Amino acid sequence: MLSLFVKIPLIWKIYTFIKKWGFSFLILFISIFLISYIHSEYISWIEVSGKKLFLGYSYVLKNILILICIGFFLLINFFKLKELKKLESIERNIDHTGSEKFKKLKAKRQSGELKSEYDRILEGSNDEK
């Protein structure tokens, strides 16, 4: 039972990490896999054909492409984090102003300044405030 309580927070952290970054990591790993696979096919083609065309350059190109993929991944996630922080701050402001507005309307309602449509009908007045 105790081990279950220890595992649940760990599982929850893994779940939130995968939910937040899983798709991005999946795209990154697929692109790195494709680059490595294409490079290995190129190397096997060179061995079969007997041509030694651009053998050293292919390793440099492969590593540059992998670094570009990682750079795009970090760049996209940097802007994603920036946007998430911006949205969280906006949500905090909205919640704060929403509760203040609710308190002001409740105070007006209790003081009698704010009347509902039913109150105006019962009083017989059609003035709107």
Provide an overview of this structure.
The protein has 129 residues and is mainly alpha-helical. Helices cover 87% and strands 0% of the residues. It has three helices and no strands. The chain has helices at residues 2-49, 55-111, 117-123. The longest helix has 57 residues, at 55-111. It starts with a helix and ends in a 6-residue tail after the last helix. The mean pLDDT is 81.
List the helices and strands and how they pair.
Layout: H1 2-49, H2 55-111, H3 117-123
Helix pairs in contact: 1-2
Outline, from the CA principal axes?
Answer: elongated
Termini, distance in Å?
A: 61 Å
Structural class by helix and strand composition:
mainly alpha
Strand content: under 5%
Helix content bin: over 70%
Largest sheet: none
Give a short summary of the structure.
With 129 residues, the protein is mostly helical. The chain has helices at 2-49, 55-111, 117-123.
Key structural traits:
about 130 residues, mainly alpha, about 85% helix, elongated
